[in-house]
Amino acid sequence: MAPPFVFPQILRALEEDPEDNHRLFALNPVDVTHLRPSDLEEFVKGVSFDLSDRELFCIEDQDVFDRVYSLVRSFFSLPPICKCNLVESLRSNLSVLLPNVDSISRSVQDQEDEVPIIDRITSHRNALKIYTFFLLTIIMTEESHTSSVDSIKLAARGKKKQTVQSWNWEPQRGRMLTLIANSLEINLSLLFGSSDLDENYLSFIVKNSFSLFENAAILKDAEAKDALCRIIGASATKYRYIVQSCASIMHLIHKYDFAVVHVADAVARAESKYSDGTLAVTIIRDIGRTDPKSYIKDTVGADNVGRFLVELADRLPKLMSTNVGVLVPHFGGESYKIRNALVGVLGKLVAKAFNDAEGDVSSKSLRLRTKQAMMEILLERCRDVSAYTRSRVLQVWAELCEEHSVSIGLWNEVASISAGRLEDKSAIVRKSALNLLITMLQHNPFGPQLRIASFEATLEQYKRKLNELEPSLPTEDTSKEPTSDGDSCSGDGEIDDLHLEATNKMHQDSLPDSCQPDNGEEISEKDVSVPDIGNLEQTKALIASLEAGLRFSKCMSASMPILVQLMASSSASDVENSILLLMRCKQFQIDGAEACLRKILPLAFSQDKSIYEAVENAFISIYIRKNPIDTAKQLLNLAIDSNIGDQAALEFIVNALVSKGEISSSTTSALWDFFCFNINGTTAEQSRGALSILCMAAKSSPRILGSHIQDIIDIGFGRWAKVEPLLARTACTAIQRLSEEDKKKLLLSSGSRLFGILESLITGNWLPENIYYATADKAISAIYMIHPTPETLASTIIKKSLSTVFDVVGQDQAQNDTDDNNVDILTPVQVAKLSRFLFAVSHIAMNQLVYIESCIQKIRRQKTRKDKAAAESQSTDENLGDTQEKSGINAELGLAASDDALLDTLAERAEREIVSGGSNEKNLIGDCATFLSKLCRNFSLLQKHPELQASAMLALCRFMIIDASFCESNLQLLFTVVENAPSEVVRSNCTLSLGDLAVRFPNLLEPWTENMYARLRDPSVSVRKNAVLVLSHLILNDMMKVKGHINEMAICIEDDVERISSLAKLFFHELSKKGSNPIYNLLPDILGQLSSRNLKRESFCNVMQFLIGSIKKDKQMEALVEKLCNRFSGVTDGKQWEYISYSLSLLTFTEKGIKKLIESFKSYEHALAEDLVTENFRSIINKGKKFAKPELKACIEEFEEKVNKFHMEKKEQEETARNAEVHREKAKTMESLAVLSKVKEEPVEEYDEDVSDSEIVNPSMEKSGGNSIATDSEEEPSHSEEEPSDSEEEPDSEQCGTTNPRSLNQKTRGGEEGESESKSTESSSSIRRNLRSGSRS
Q1: Nearest alpha-carbon partner for 745 in 782, 783, 786
Q2: Compositional bias (Basic and acidic residues) spans (predicted)?
Q3: Would the pTM count as exceeding 0.90?
């Protein structure tokens, strides 16, 4: 019998001679690498023949063992055919050996003699070990060689490929591993004597299996992966190899992220195959016992462990639910990845672990309580400190909603929390909250439409029905408690299907869905009777579900304002998901959703392509229908209800959709049918809306309007225009959008009629006041767009308008009356006519200016085309040379330039003649401008007619934009009005005009820059808003230099009106993008200006925080440190010191910045006496310590000590100076008291001269005269209770030669104060002594 085979640590260990000679080893190995190929092939064939021809146990024979060992040792160098033969022989022998184990067990029962059986068992065990060892060794050798070859191939990629004879290794590997897995799954207890296998045998298999698990390529092979999972499961579960397997699994999870899913699969397979979850439970408890702090540094390990737990919970939900308690403490850890994983685990458990309906009542109750506890944890985690965890929780809730695992009792709570998370500071949380609400709407249990009115009406009906049912069951009401919301739910918290079906049917019956026809009468009849769903309990359950649905609908409706705010977010995901949620809300008829969807139109101008695509897709899904008439109706209604901004966005979208073909020709035809009243029930307003959409579409396809020119004139300016006055304005817009060919056709066919209509629109009085100005604007623009000589018609319009204004009094008389401030001639009718006249004449002047510029451009284009055609017509080289010579001569003589100069001169003259006039002839608009200038100066008249002042100032501003001399002469008037006009409409209009004037005549407006900035302080919100817009436009487009008044714009950041504050922030945000960030250069001046302003400290801090936040470059931050430190030296105010130090603390400090701060210590050391200044510097120091290296950290600590030391010294100096000042003040007070006392005592001293003499002569009194006199002087005014004690102590103080402070009846706080009082007393005594001497003499 061969000696037993013992698994070696390494393959080469088999060559070592054992000391006890009691194990099988390689006695005579052969070095096959030195054999010739033919000899090697013969050698392998011999081994294969022996293995296949002889019995299975021949592997124990020393000769066979040595030869097989020799081949395995050099396996990587064998030719492919030899490898295949050897592997096939070993594998086939092992596959035959495994079934013999069962035959051995049968032989044990039949055989009486045990010795042969024991020998057979030993031989089988030996052969099993040897075959397993060699096969696994071959696998590990080949895998290591394959990985090294792959790396060499990657390095040598690009070189010429060499043809290498290879063998198909992957199928061989899978079959070998499957065979080893099969060997572990048979009954090996007889071979090894017990259920515990040989430790070396099992550890060798498990160690190599886990090593193979570290190879991602092997795990991609399904057969190999399946075999490895079986090996791990059998070893750990069947043979109790738990501890080592758990350690290896934890190592795999922590280090190899690709192995996580496969390890979870292996653990789950082990539990399902052997019905034993020991391995899974042990791993879960190991993870639970791990210190949560260890996951903070090992972020990759935390991520992998979290993924493993989620995968395991997905595969083994019941087992995980019974052991999840050991993981819950990790919710208190700092690793958000672990918390994310635990949230995912709880989500999987809630969805899968409690679906089993079996069990008694107590077990069901326990499961329900456990599920409820998990859901409460999930609700609590919605407020986690980490945004990633909050986002993950919301994602889990969305998954639960899709799985229908959220009960109605929790539905509204989840919806409320999700709606609250819409205002989260993190974009990823907001995105998850939006997706959750979308999912909740899609899977809501309340029905296909969620209108509040629908729920309230139906709920009221069922409550009445409940009241009818309750009196009929008085015994039940007294014996049973009222049914709660939970009673309407089944055991797992879900509402019964009967109630849901009844609720959905009720919703469809009570009010129409958006897809149903609006049959109001039928609905009202259906509302009278509600379906009978059963008894009292079922009615109560339905009412509970209706109330829950009503709360959900109200919750969704209340979130509409937040969604509108999110659509203005800087995060594209916020905008896109908000649009998707609003679309879903509209589908379910949530109140307010449709109005909010209108607000997505301005987002069409977004520069973010994804946002525009979201808006376009939403627009198509909402408004573009299959039926062209429905599409046309949707679009025209949208145009009717839109404001000016929305119409601009709508036009942009319509143009894009027309060019893409989304708005088809059939839809265009339907719009024409609405405009022409060809569809029954069409109103004048709908006709106007249809024409508006057609005008928008004509911008990208002008021929759309050409086929209905006559209809536009007949309907747009006909009787329907009096019903809907805005129809005339839309018709004017349509005329402007005509193509050039259509314009020519219009002039030939209906030109005179059209111009007569437009003239009557401008000069007539039939249009309402609020519509006239917009209509006249479009009419005048249309005249200048299509009339061949618009100035002739414009002059006629001005004269006719002028005659209608002054139809009672002549023009000259009116002019004189205006000059004389005679305001009695203006009646309200004349005021309206005058306002219209001023608007018309100013708008004509503006259009004339534009017309002149367009004519000049047209001439230049014609000249360019003519020159180009002339150059191309020269075909011969000689002519071409002559042409080039002529052009060169013209260039030298400047003839080409003179043509352009002539055009410019003509243009300037034409522009000047509009207002000022350039000849002796009368100028129509110029006379009106003179009249207007005088009218605007007549403040007494305009104060009585604010509407007239608005029109007059608007006209004045237009004339100023046209003519420079007129602008210069009226600038002071304009700024006077913009500052002092009582009407905020006038001030707002003038503010906007200032922007146009600054663009047109920047040199004239430059001296008035301060006055323009002053509009930012206007009390009117509209004026301030317009001022921010105007200044932003001018500065950002380099039309105005940023001067020292930019601090006014900075103050607007803290404006009380959110709109103005947002515009100011937007201005500085855009300004920071220009060049090298101008805010960096402006910041010190802004700081100085704001410090001197009476600004709240909180407002100052917010402004500086925002401005400094826009500076990103480290170099600029470092330079700002030096600039701000230098400002300390020129400032003496403590408040400004505080503000400068606060601004310094906001900077992002680098190592250089800290060094500059330390080097500039001399410039701010005097300010360290202020507590707040020192606190700000300490804040800088604390920030510096966080990133500082050891050397810099030492410097920072030294700097901190220096700051603290100077702070204490300055405080002491200030305290000393303050005390000295107090003492000086007290000394002055004592001297004044002494003088007053002398004045009071003088008459008595003059009467009693002897006493005075005796006092002066007495030497003892002279020695301590100061003290006695001071005491005398204080005795008279003093009335305190301490006087007796003072008089008793007086002699002692006199004997000591010092002054007793109490003798002055004054409390002192220190020795210095007493000393100063003594000095003051002595000085007062000497004064009195001098006075007495003078009186005696």
Answers
A1: 786
A2: 1309-1320
A3: no
